[in-house]
Each structure stands twice: as C-alpha cells, then as structure tokens.
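wait is this the right file?? whatever heres the structure
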C-alpha cells in the first residue's frame, strides 16, 4: 500500500513539474539567466490572489462548488511566487559573488606571475609562420647552391 502511494505521488509530482505552467515558469526562473526576474515575478502572486478572490465572490453568489479547487490552486501558486522572489534574490547575490570571485581569481592568476617569460621552442620544434629567421636557409637546397 505504501509503495502504491509513493509511486502515485511521484507520478503526480512529475506530471505537475512538466505540464503545469507555474512550475515551468518557476523552473525557468531558477536558472542563472532567470534569477534576476524572481522579484518581478512576485507580481504574479497579486494576479493569483485576485483570481482567488474573484472565484470566492462567484462562489458566494451561487457558482458551483468546484470553484473551491480553483481558489485553492490560485492561493498555492500565489504563495509559490511570493516565496520564490526573496529566494531568487539571495541566489542571484550568491551567483554574482561567485562570478566576481572567479573573475578576481582569474585576473590574479594572470597578474601573479608577470616575470614569467614566454615559452621558448624546443630544439627541433617548428616556429609558426616561418619565423625561423636566416638560419633556415642553410637547411634548404637553395642555400647549398648559393
């Protein structure tokens, strides 16, 4: 019985994750590119609360009782967006700090060893774009005939 409940909850969660628009939007907001849209996305909570309020007024006026499910769904989605706003702000701050730290480390590695000389080619290593200088002439047939 427990296995049946567990599997059903996994399948319901997967369905909700893949097909419900609010979950798709929240997944997009959790990416690095979408983090800066987390706080403006909190405004969607206002829309969801307004829909929930409108449905409750319809229910009070004699609309069908299944609208209670819509009210519940709207309130859940509104709270999802309300909670996600501050969380995305914290994640954005962390990501920017990490990126800044990484840039400083990379810049520090470039500046840490200014005395480092460029790599000198090995004994028989070819130089790029014929930068051998006049010494390569002695190795050609034209140099022997001259």
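ok assuming it is, sequence goes like this
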């Amino acid at each position: 019985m427990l296995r049946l409940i567990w599997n059903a909850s996994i399948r319901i969660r997967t369905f909700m994750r893949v097909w419900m628009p609010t979950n798709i939007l929240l997944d997009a907001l959790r990416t690095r590119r979408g983090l800066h849209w987390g706080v403006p996305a909190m405004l969607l909570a206002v829309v969801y609360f307004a829909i929930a309020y409108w449905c409750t007024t319809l229910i009070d006026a004699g609309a069908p009782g299944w609208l209670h499910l819509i009210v519940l769904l709207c309130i859940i989605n509104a709270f999802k967006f309300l909670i996600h706003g501050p969380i995305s702000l914290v994640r954005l701050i962390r990501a920017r700090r990490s990126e800044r730290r990484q840039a400083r480390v990379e810049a520090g590695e470039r500046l840490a060893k200014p005395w480092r000389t460029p790599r000198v080619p090995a004994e028989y290593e070819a130089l790029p774009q014929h930068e051998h200088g006049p010494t390569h002439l002695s190795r050609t047939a034209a140099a022997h005939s001259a």
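The first helix runs from residue 2 to 19. so i think its the right one actually
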